[in-house]
Amino acid sequence: PGCRHSSAAIMPFGKHKGTAIRNIPRPYLEWLKDKQPDALDETVKRAVAERLVELTTAGARPSDGAAPVTGPRMVLHVNLTGRQHHPSSLVHEGTRVTFQRDPNNEADPNAMKAVVQNQQVGWLERDMAEVL
Q1: At the N or C end, where does the chain have fewer CB atoms within 10 A?
Q2: In the chain, which ranges are continuous DSSP H helix?
Q3: What's the CA gap between 48 and 63, in Å, rounded?
Q4: What is the pLDDT of residue 1?
Q5: Using the 8-state DSSP alphabet, how is residue 20 labeled?
Q6: For residue 101, what is the enclosing H or E element?
Q7: CB-CB contact of 99 with 112 (8 Å)
Q8: 10 Å Cβ neighbour count for 75?
Q9: What distances in angstroms separate CA 82 from CA 48, 57, 72, one per listed residue?
Q10: Most confident region among 49-53, 65-69, 71-75, 79-83 by mean pLDDT
């Protein structure tokens, strides 16, 4: 299984078994996060989320080809949760979403609301919100 510090976590199974998470290709990490979340212990899950954030923010460019976003903004490709509670036609693939911490969320102190045009449309996945 993974080790204590997420930055040094090792993949415990699959074709990359024994490989440091930081050395696994992005497509595999994305597949792992989206399709196999229950197969990962918390240390490996955190390491995968942190590595995806690193890979996404390093030289990220908006899909419209504009210059990389700098400062407190970044380009992330994420899935939103809680959409069933916040139905909206505002969200589709490629939508620019603002994430805002929700300090009043009793279930998750790291929770981040997903907002489009001043309307909450869901939540950032817990693993991603925790590392941002």
Answers
A1: N
A2: 26-35, 42-57, 126-131
A3: 23
A4: 41
A5: B
A6: strand 98-101
A7: yes
A8: 15
A9: 22, 24, 25
A10: 49-53
Q: Is the dihedral of CA 20, 26, 28, 32 positive or negative?
A: positive
For residue 45 the two structure tokens come to 């899950």
Residue among 74, 114, 73, 111 nearest 97 (CA): 114
Retrieve residue 43's tokens: 């240390």
Q: Which two tokens stand for residue 37?
A: 């979340």
The amino acid occupying position 73 is R
CA 96 to chain centre: 15
Task: Tell me whether strands 98-101 and 80-81 are parallel, antiparallel or unpaired.
Answer: unpaired
pLDDT in tens, 50-61: 888 877 665 444
Task: Tell me what pLDDT residue 7 has.
Answer: 60
